[in-house]
Amino acid sequence: MHNRLQDATQPLNTNRADERDQRVSRETRDTIRFDRAAAPGRETGAHSGIAQAAPSRARAPQRDTDQATPDVCALVHAHLVRSLGANRVRRYLNERTQMRQLDDGSIEICAGDAFTLDMIERRLGDALRIGAQFALGTTEPVLRYRVDADLQPQTQQGAREIAPQSDDSKLQTLSNRVALPKQNRAPERCPRLEQFVVGASNRLAYESVKQCVEASSPGAPVFVHGVCGVGKTHLLRGATLLARRLRPGCKVRYTTGEAFTNAFVNAIRTRTVEAFQKKYRGLDLLCIDDIHLMAGKQATQHELLQIFNTLSLGGARIILASDAHPRMIARLDQALSSRFSAGLVVRIDEPDATLARQLVAGIAMKHGLTLDEAAIRVICDRVGIGRGASVRDLEGAVLQVHAVCRLLDRDSSSERGAVTPTASHVRQAMSLRCGEDTSIQSRPIALDDITRTICAELSVSLGDLRGKGRQKKVVLARELITHLARQLTSKSFPEIAHMLGRSNHSTVITAAKRFKDRLSASQSVQADCPFDGLPLVELTQRLTQSVQQG
After folding, report:
1. What distance, in Å, lies between the first and last C-alpha atoms of the chain?
2. Which pTM was predicted?
C-alpha cells in the first residue's frame, strides 16, 4: 500500500475569504474539475507514489497554466484517448480528478480518495507514462499521484456554500471538460503576425496591433472587435510571438476570457489568489481573447479591473479582443467598458472579394493544392463572400475541395504530392459543403455537346474546327473545347484529338497547356469575335454554364 502523507490543515474562518466565496459562488459552479489549472501538491517516491492529504487550503505556487502546462497535459490526455478510447479514459479522469504539470517538469495526477488514485495508477499508469514520455521528450518522465480531499464528492455543508448546478450547467460543464484537451492541442503552432493576410477590411486592426508591440514605449491599450472567424485570435497570438522575438526575456501572456475566469475561480477555491495576481500584475504584454465571455461575472471583472489598472500604471502593453464593441457587451462592468473604450478601438470586418481570393490561394498553397483563378472564384462565390462568410468558411471550403479531389481522383496528385482539382471536383465539393443533394446526378455531358455549344457561341463551323485553318477564333474554339472536355468529361487527349480531326494528340496537349497559362495570366479575349475584350476566365465560365444547362 502506498505511503500516505498528512498535510497540515489550516483554519478556514476568515470572514473576507467567506465573503469572496459567496461573491463568486455562481462562477464556481462552472469550474472544470479535470483541468490543468489546479495547484501542485507534494510528491512521494522517485517516479510515482500516492500521498494522502487532508482538506488543506495552503498550496504551493501554481505553474504558468496559460503557457507550458496545457500543452503537456493535453498531449498526455490525447495519447490516453488514442490508445485506450475516450469512454475508458473518462471513466477514470473526470470531475473528481486533476492532472497538471509542476514547476520541476513532473506531472501530477490527483484524485479525491486513495482507492480512485490506485485505480488510475493500475489501469492507466503505463499509458500515462508513455504519454508523458512523448509530451515531455524524455525517456524517464516523473509521474506523481496524490490524494486531494478537495476533489471528494461534495458534502451537504459544501452544497450549502455552493449553489447546486442545474441540468443545463452540468451538461455545459461536462461538454467543456471533454473538449478541453482538443482546444489545447500542442501540434497547433502559434501563428506569426507576418502570416496575417492584410486587406482593406483588416488593415487598421493589423497595423494597430503591430504598432502596439513594436513601439519603443507603451501606448494606449488596443481593443479589436469583429465577428467570429475574421482573424482576431491570429492577431493576438502573433503579437505575443512578435513581442518575445523583439524583447527576449519580457513577460508575455496570452489567455482567453474563459481561461482567465476558470483560473481565477480556481485560485479562490484553493486560496491562491495572491499567486494568481502575481502572475498577471508583473507582465510586459497581456493579450486576452474573447473578453466578452467575462460578461456577468462580477468577481472576475473586478479582478480584471485591478490587473488592468496595475498594468496600465506600470507601462505594460495590453491587447484585447471581443466579438463586439466594449459599449455593446451586455453585463460588462461600466468601469471596464470605460477603460477599454479609452484606448484604440478597431474593428475587423468580413473579408471582401479581393482579400477572400488571396486567402483562398494562400490556404490552398499551404495544403499543396493548385487552384486556378476560375476555381478560386467558384469557391468564393459559393462560400458567400459579402454575405456573412468568414475566413474559417474559406478554409473549410478549400479543405473540402482538397479531400474530394484526393478521394475521387488519385491521378490528379503529382509525384510531389500537389493536387490540381478539376472544375468538377470544385463543384462537387461545394455542393457537399452547402448541403445540396448530390445523390441526384446531373445529366452527363457529352463531348458533342461541348463542341456544339462553343461553335455556336463563337460562330465557327464544324468544318473549320476540324480543318487546318489558323484563324484566331477557330484556334480559340479548339482550345476551349479541349479545356472544357478535360474539365467536364472523362475524355482522354487522344479522344479529344480524334474529335478535332487531329491524328497526333501532342498538339492538343500543347494547346491545353497554352490555354491554361493564358487563364492563369488573366488574359482577355482577342480573337476577332463578339467576346473580344472579355476576360478569358469569364468567357470560360459562361461557356461552362451554357454547356451544363444544355
Report:
1. 80
2. 0.47
